[in-house]
Design brief:
Length: about 240
């Protein structure tokens, strides 16, 4: 499985002081040099962590697979077409939420999503839709023409080590199978950490995991390079 490291919270820390440290660019470089397959950033509408300059600077100065997480807005579509990341992951976004709380409801806006992602796909950007592990969301994603989905693993992570874990895990497994049968490549992410990530090996053919908070948290104690290498050891 590939690892995309989400470095949003390096920016959270930097923004807390309003100065330049820690450098988001240096963090991206360390992740790539430590073996990560890509860098993931969520350019939120309110720019609470990653800023426009961060993504454009990384794109220009670092040779890496760049995955831009973004909401379904005209502003973000325009930025993505200018930035030309390798991948775009389309996520829902609510201003008040602390983090992305649920998957994108593709089912109730299939045609809107289809026309939103079409120009991105036409430019060669790999588009994935961040959805809950739900049959109707997987089928709707297929309808839009997206070649990738990212399954929201938040419910599984939250249920880990509880009686609900198995049910959440089965949903991930079944949605992956269904998506793969439709020709969709499946990624996963959200809430994954050093303790719960091992079960992702039980899901055949998962392509990529996008992990942020747990890696950046561990980096505080053991350094970012070690935190990335340790996660890679667990998922390879
Ligand atoms: N994937 C997506 C689409 C996300 O929105 C996020 C959180 O920004 C992540 C992965 C990473 O989640 P976490 O920080 O919990 O590892």
């Amino acid at each position: 499985m590939r690892l995309g490291v989400n470095i949003d919270h390096i920016a959270t820390l930097r923004n807390a002081r309003g100065e330049k440290e820690p450098s988001v660019f240096d963090a991206a470089k360390i992740c790539i040099n430590s073996g990560a397959n890509g860098i993931t950033t969520h350019l939120r509408e309110d720019r609470r962590h990653i800023k426009d300059d961060d993504v454009f600077y990384i794109r220009k100065h670092l040779d890496c697979f760049l995955n831009l997480e973004m909401a379904v807005t005209d502003e973000m579509q325009e930025i993505a077409l200018k930035l030309m990341p390798d991948a775009c992951c389309i996520v829902p976004e609510k201003r008040q939420e602390v983090t992305t709380e649920g998957g994108l409801d593709v089912f109730s806006q299939q045609d809107k999503i289809k026309s939103f992602i079409a120009p991105l796909i036409a430019k060669g950007i790999k588009v994935s839709l961040f959805i809950d592990a739900d049959e109707k969301q997987v089928k709707a994603s297929h309808y839009t023409g997206a070649e990738f989905i990212e399954l929201h693993t938040g419910a599984y992570s939250g249920a880990f080590n509880s009686p609900l874990e198995e049910a959440e895990f089965i949903k991930l497994k079944n949605s992956t199978k269904l998506a793969q049968s439709l020709g969709i490549t499946v990624n996963a992410g959200h809430g994954l950490n050093y303790i719960n990530v091992h079960r992702m090996h039980e899901i055949d053919g998962l392509n990529e995991l996008n992990i942020g908070h747990s890696i950046i948290s561990k980096a505080v104690f053991i350094g970012l390079d070690n935190a990335v290498k340790e996660m890679i050891r667990l998922i390879k």
